[in-house]
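Entry 14: structure prediction run for Ferredoxin. Input pasted below.
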Amino acid sequence: MKIRFDRDTCIGMFQCVDEWDAFEKNLDTGKADLAGADEVDDDVFELEVPDDAELDAEFAARACPVDAIELYDGDEQVV
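Run finished. Output tokens:
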């Protein structure tokens, strides 16, 4: 599984931070950061989700009020 985070879309509600510790508050920018992620496009980050964190990653994606987080299983979007 991989998670894709559009940081430009993020509005800094930090609900993802409460759901998965891979997301961190960045109070300087007022947006979340996805720790260890690779930037694949301007302000778009991707990270392979460890097997033991798949449920937390799903909760983080579902909690985002502006759909800035997408979760993929292979090429299929799960959230």
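Notes: The chain has one domain: 2-77. Will compare against the previous run tomorrow.
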